[in-house]
Predict the structure.
Amino acid sequence: MTAETSQTLDRGLRVLKLLADTDHGLTVTELSLRLGVNRTVVYRLLATLEQHALIRRDLGGRARVGLGVLRLGRQVHPLVREAAMPALRSLAEDIGATAHLTLVDGADALAVAVVEPTWTDYHVAYRAGFRHPLDRGAAGKAILAARQHPRSDPGYTLTHGELEAGACGAAAPLLGVTGVEGSVGVVMLADVVPERVGERVVDAAREVAEALR
């Protein structure tokens, strides 16, 4: 801690991070041990966070992340979308295919930004807000590949006909962006995705990741 930082705020944020990393919640005693502070301090932190709906306590006294966090989270998508748009526009125009940014939303992959090419006679229609299971489609599978290989670059993922008959996709995960789990990809009508498309998607994912850091 430095003179310019708040110890209380730091502890409160640490509480939220600890709770976000568990599915079953934590007790006051458990939080006290992990934070290295006494139970009175933890009670005060939880009471303040609960007033803002950032945490909730169940009947057994275990603290969990509250619904107030969702309201904060909704504001993340517009910021991420804005940062990603230049790279997505460049990707769509270069490849001549619909480009998209997809983020994890629970067990689903959620398209939060989509750019269609301006010069093609036809292309796949793909809308922001479209969601699908993470284990189907290039966008979701690219994210899962990054989870399976957290210390390396998994490259790009290719799929064909998994979300729409006749359509194939290529996607690469966003790497090195704290708090954001997602991928950048394209979807096109083709039998085979050209090799350069996969490489171009990887480059676009890197551009978006750099814009978000």
Q: What stands out?
A: Residues 76-95 form the longest helix (20 residues). Helices lie at 7-20, 28-35, 39-51, 68-74, 76-95, 138-148, 195-212. DSSP finds seven helices and eight strands in the chain. The radius of gyration is 21 Å.
